[in-house]
Amino acid sequence: MKLSVVMPVYNERETIENIVEKVKEVDIDKEIILVDDGSIDGTREFLTKILVEAPDLKVVFHDKNEGKGAALRTGFMHASGDYVIVQDADLEYDPQDFHKLLKPVIEGKAKVVYGSRFMGKRKRDIYNKGSMHFLHLLANKTLTFLTNVLYGAKLTDMETCYKLIPKNLVESITITSNRFNFEPEITAKILKKGYKIVEVPISYAGRDVHEGKKIGWKDGIVALWTLIKYRFVD
Fold first, then answer.
1. Terminal Cα-to-Cα distance of the chain (whole angstroms)
2. Residue 53: strand, helix, or coil
3. Residue 210: its pLDDT value, please?
4. Which end of the chain is more exposed for a tag (fewer CB within 10 A), N or C?
C-alpha cells in the first residue's frame, strides 16, 4: 500500500527542511507532495533548490497565498497513492506516527483513521503541560463536540492534522474550503458518506502564534459555521 503525504507549506523556512527529512525517514512506501502556498520568507527558494537535489519529491507552487484547504486540493490532485495523509510543515506532529494510523487499515479494521491528540499518554501532556493554548483547546473541544452531535460520531479530535483517507474517497469529495475550515468540511462529508472514523493516539508538540502558528479565533467561527452548513447541504 502506497501512502501520499501531502504537505501544505506557507512561510515555514525555519522548519521545512527538518520536517521533510523526518517524513523521508519513515520506513513505508510513500510519496511526498509539497505545495508552497505563496511563501515569502525564503521557503519557496528552499523548495526550488530541493527540486534539483531531491527529484523524488513532488513540489507544486501557488502564485499567491490561497489557504490550507486550497493547497491541499492541489496536493490531492497530484497524489498517486492508495491513501493520502496531511502533514503540516511545522514540527507539531511526528511522522513516525504514520505507522500507528496505518495499522488499523492494514489489519482491515478501518477505512478512515484520524490521529487523536487527546487519547493515551499524550492527553495528559496537552492538559497539564500547556502544549496547546487554552483557547485552541477550548475551540477544538467545542468543534469536536458539535461534530459528534450533528453527525452521530464519537470523535475526540476532529481538528487533528493527521487524517488518513483512501485516495478514492478523497476523489469522491468536493472540497470548497480554502482555509482551515478544510478540517470540518472533509470530516462532515466523510461521515455523511457513512464511513466510520477510527482514532488512534498520536504525539503532539504544540506551538504558539509567536512561533508561527497561523490559525486564529476567526477560523474557529468559520469552522463552526462549516459544520452546521454541511449537515444540511452537500
1. 30
2. helix
3. 47
4. C
206: Cβ–Cβ under 8 A, 6 or more apart, which residues?
92, 126, 131, 132, 133, 136, 213
Tell me the C-alpha distance between 27 and 10, whole Å. 26
Cβ(91)–Cβ(205) under 8 Å?
yes
Q: Which domain holds residue 40?
A: 3-232
Cell 499567491 belongs to 64
**What does the pLDDT read at residue 215?**
61
pTM for the model: 0.89
Q: What is the pLDDT of residue 180?
A: 81
CA distances from 60 to 17, 64, 72, 216 (A): 16, 12, 11, 26
Report residue 207 as a C-alpha cell.
506551538
d(CA 234, CA 213): 30
Q: Residue 11 is part of a domain; what is its CATH number?
A: 3.90.550.10
d(CA 155, CA 196): 10
In tens, the pLDDT along 60-72 reads 999 999 999 999 9
The answer on pLDDT for 149 being more than 90 is yes
Element (H, E) at 219: helix 217-232
The pairing of strands 112-116 and 163-166 is antiparallel
CA-closest candidate to residue 162, choices 78, 96, 71: 96
Residue 115 phi, psi (nearest 5): -90, 120
**Backbone CA torsion sign across 127, 198, 86, 98:** positive
DSSP-based three-state secondary structure for 2: coil
Neighbour tally for 42: CB within 10 Å: 13
